[in-house]
């Protein structure tokens, strides 16, 4: 039987020191018997046997007060013989049965009380054992869940009150930074307001919500989670707490996105090739015809100016078609190991020439590195990024850094321009997304495509103190080559 | 002894205009190239389809240079190229293409490419460089 002496405040009364109670009852009984023996007949001393019976209110077994009552009965009978002469024998004859009855009634009440308490204690112990087992099981489930899933709980307002280690690991926030916040802290801004509203509508109505969410970690990187949010309801049927169980599906989403992108690019490539042919063929005819007409004797200067302007427009139109082709149908890279310094020098020269007098100073890197890539593509990428930096709206010098590490060479182009204005820099790589009045919005999309074709990566990030950093990582080349 | 338009027969090599045939489906491309090349002193003709091209190539003198569109609506330009090579083995080819890197696979890998839209002056320079003056004279004597 479980030890009930450590019962909690809402447990059964504690059965304290039953050994001392028995001893006390024995001593008390002996004292009462002695008192009965020295007291004349008729004085109701035996009624005091109720006292040792009542002692068992404090503890002991349920049969012990009955045992005391039996003993007291025997002693009351014995007491009749040993009581000294004198006193009222008539009253004594009436009292003795009444006293015996009183003792037995007390014993029955106390025995019943003790029996009830014992049953209560047994029930309580059984409940407690079951509860402890449940808690233990829950702890095991929680341990398993914490190993397998990203778990967080919030109150009914969405304020985070629990996160597990996996949540901290993926979000890169500490537990202290998350507790007390709502989930906006990891909101990536990717999902529409309708999506978020739908989620809240579902869980606030007490239903489970399932879906895939893109979140943003503390360092600005994104991660995807497959999410199940379970609302826990109060007695009034209103949610009092939400438990969110998530699993990391970033790799799957990235792979899916890559497949979709590749498929879309393949289609776009076919489309672009057809469009390029259909546009460039007539453009070639028109341009050539204008050149012939312009060169003919008799064409006046005014008409020649118009024809020159038309030829210039055709060239602009052609460069836009060229952009679409370069994005949608780039050529395969021709790899070679090259020193970055020379390519950078070429790109810096071209950028300064294209940007004109308004171009800020460009500080080349102190060191150099070797990359294994396509020379023309690397030059195009660097030129594009340098031109963006030149047009970033600052006259502060553009700084270029080169680091070679772990088989990759990283080039950073940092400006002090207007930055991204709170916009997600990742969106700038989307095709046809432009922040300029003119332009196809393909510049950075082409840059990413070219970098990716060469096995590299590119990212844009805000620069501390204002401005932007473009970071290109390409496979490093062997310096001995 | 008969005399030619260029003077005494047989004409000197320098007097023979080099013959260029343009094969392209786009009328303005044909017109601008032939007109521009004629202005530059070439004997230029144009074909709008494969049948016309065959007839032109068989005419004498054989072409020194053929400007061939990389995408013809009525034939595979690679077959046309091989066919013309069979008729006139010494003919040089310049391919008119909208995307240069599509021209890397054989048999395009040993021919020069002119990107569309082109600069006429550049085309004249490329044709000038591709057309040898000596060759047509020997073939003309046949």
What features would you highlight for this structure?
heterodimer, A: 481 residues, alpha+beta, 5-stranded mixed beta sheet, 12 helices, 12 strands, disordered N terminus, B: 142 residues, alpha/beta, 5-stranded parallel beta sheet, two-stranded antiparallel sheet, 5 helices, 7 strands, disordered C terminus
Overview of the structural elements:
The complex is a heterodimer of chains A (481) and B (142). With 481 residues, chain A is α+β, with helices and mostly antiparallel strands. Helices cover 51% and strands 17% of the residues of chain A. In chain A, helix 8 runs antiparallel to helix 9. In chain A, 26% of the residues are buried. Residues 1-8 of chain A have low confidence and may be disordered. Chain B is of the alpha/beta class and 142 residues long. In chain B, strand 1 and strand 2 (7-8) form a beta hairpin. In chain B, helix 1 crosses helix 4. The chains are: A alpha+beta (481), B alpha/beta (142).
Question: What's this model, at a glance?
Answer:
The complex is a heterodimer of chains A (481) and B (142). Chain A is an alpha+beta fold and 481 residues long. Helix content of chain A is 51%, strand content 17%.
Supply the number of helical segments of chain A.
12
> So how many helices of chain B?
5
Unreliable runs of chain A:
1-8
Give the terminus-to-terminus CA distance of chain A: 82 Å
- The arrangement of helices and strands of chain A along the chain is HHHHEEHHHEEEHHEHEEHEEHEE
Strand content of chain B: 15-25%
Alpha-beta content class of chain A: alpha+beta
Oligomer: heterodimer
Biggest interface: chains and residue counts?
A: A-B, 23 and 26 residues
Low-confidence stretches of chain B: 1-7, 135-142
For the largest beta-sheet of chain B, the strand count, sense and barrel status come to: 5 strands, parallel
- Overall mean confidence score, pLDDT of chain B: 79
